[in-house]
Amino acid sequence: MNTTFLCCHYGINAMAHTATHFDSLEKAAKISHRMIDIAALAGRISEPFSILTAQIKDLVLAIESTRFFGITHQLAFPDEKGCYFFQENTKVKCAERVFLSAHTALKLLVGADRVNLIKLGIIASYSIGYVSIFRYFLEGTILSYYFFGNWDARGKVSATQERLSMAIGKIEKWKDRQQTSMAGTERTHLKLKKWEAIKYNLNVDQTNAWIKIAVTLSKMVLISSAVALAVLNITSAPSLLYLLTLGTVSDVIGLAGIFYAEYHPYRRIAVTSQ
Amino acid sequence: MLPYGTYFHCILRQIKPFSLTMNTQMPLSYLPHDTDIHKSSTSEDCKIAETCCDGRTFSLLEKGLQSSFTIIAHVVENVFLTLKVICADPNSFAAVIRKFDPYILALVEKINKSPGEFQKLKSVIGSTVSCINVLQIAADIDYGVQAKYKQEGKFAVLGRLAMFVAHVGETILWFSQIGFINLKKIATSLGNISIFTKAIPISLRWVTARTCGIAYALFALDALQRTMKPGDIFQKTMAKLELSANAAEVLLDLMLVAGVVNVISLGIMAGICVSLEIGVLLYQDKYKAGSPVK
User: CB B80 to CB A59 under 8 A?
Assistant: First the structure.
């Protein structure tokens, strides 16, 4: 197929995916407004772009404020099978989700304050250094979320590596058998297919985990830098450029991770062990 | 699954020994007259009866509190579930919040007698819906490219086409509002049409809104067609819910065409549309089955 047509096809497909998934929409919106902000730092941008970036920031605010309900529902209430989140996941994953829930609750408050539904008042105004106590809580919860996310992803990488080496060994074994014996070729072929599918799935898992490590690390650096610069009241153009660039890079990696998971779905293992 | 009452039960079990000791210190006059305790003669019997009665009272109290706790937990869960379903994807989120900006918030402002109270919220809703509309165009093109229309009826496909036109129109209007393009007179006036001797000014905004109304009418026809087709109970109920939601949207559009400008009636109608839309989303979430998504 024509490369241009393929690019257009994937582009439209990616945009359609963004239109139906909040995660990718949030990341795409953040990338867009940060790019416009970088352009504004580099030189003057026209009035329509300033309005556009303000409107995209409104979209991000709406998404961040409403994430609380989905995350808290998943954490606090049983799923379709009747199991709670903490029953099905590791302690690290639960800690990660608790901090995310706390962060989204605070973001909901921020959102409600921005649209004048509530007044945060003294909580938002009382500050240490140049940063309000509320912002410390806000950044502290998200930092903890990324810390536990990183821990969880590292655990996944090491667990996957062990299983991957086992799968590679099995593939080698069945390949040898396929080459040496003619008897039971059908069974050998099926076994080989099964272990190749397992290997593919483990590779997808491992790539996803590595992407998560990269995202969480970049986010942790970004948040720490943003808080440090805010505490020291450094608002120079290079520092802002650094924050915007780092934010854009981390969101691009995150978005790439979402699309990777979308376009590399798990290969179904149709072959059962015999 | 752990029932909600179980949590409360566990907590109550922990405090029960303490409350029993406390209650045995109570004077007998505090207890109801028909309890066995008043018929007892010896002090030993009295003590046993007191404990039994206390146990019964405690059990009743426990049951009452447990059921209250269960009801509260269910209410909270359903509220969270509803909000989760609305915020599950941009499509449904935009479908619900787009009614808030011109109608429902205006009604609340009217009731509160505080015009402009939700100005900032309206602006955020407007921006969110506009941004999602742009991406909806891509989703509509993808619907055509992936040939998803093959699985749907002709009314649904036509409705989708009308919705695509409406999305394009809304995006053009948004770009004009931001200042990217200049529509000049098209945005404000294209001319007039007369309906029953009443002249209606036509603009791009008017055309876009009516195209959206036509799309809802086509979706309603598709849902009506599906209610008459043989299918399981889920498909039938889903079709009926979608029919009522789309019919409400058409009614709201007809009210606008007829020139109803009353904030209260438009607000109530928009509220009904939102409730039905949420009903569709909740039913869809509960049974997780495929149905034509607007």
Answer: no
Does the pLDDT value for residue A178 go beyond 90? no
State the burial class of residue B261 (Cβ atoms within 10 Å of its Cβ: 0-12, 13-18, 19+).
Answer: exposed
Nearest C-alpha neighbor of A83 from the set A94, A69, A95: A94
Tokens representing A30? 């953040």
**How many residues are listed for chain B in this entry?**
294
What secondary structure letter does DSSP report for A239?
H
pLDDT tens digits for A41-99? 888 788 889 999 999 999 999 999 888 998 998 888 888 788 899 998 999 999 999 99
Residue A133, Cβ density class (10 Å: 0-12 exposed, 13-18 middle, ≥19 buried): middle
* CA B221 from centroid of its chain's CA atoms: 23
Q: Does B131 touch chain A (CB under 8 A)?
A: yes
CB pairs A-B closer than 8 Å: 115
Alpha-carbon gap, residue B53 to B32, rounded angstroms: 10
User: Which residues, in sequence order, are bridge partners of residue A131?
Assistant: A128
DSSP string, A61-85: HHHHHHHHHHHHHHHHS--TTS--H
CA distance B182 to chain A (A): 12
B1 vs A contacts (CB less than 8 Å)? 78, 82-83
pTM beyond cutoff 0.90: no
Q: Which of A267, A149, A157 is nearest to A209 (CA)?
A: A157
Backbone angles phi, psi at A118, to 5 degrees: -135, 170
Residue B89 with chain A: CB contacts under 8 Å: 20-22
Contact criterion met (CB < 8 Å) for B179 and A83: no
Could you tell me the sign of the dihedral formed by the alpha carbons of A19, A23, A29, A31, in that order?
negative
Q: Which residues of A225-249 are buried (b: 16+ CB within 10 A; e: fewer)?
A: ebbebbeeeeeeeebbeebbebbbb
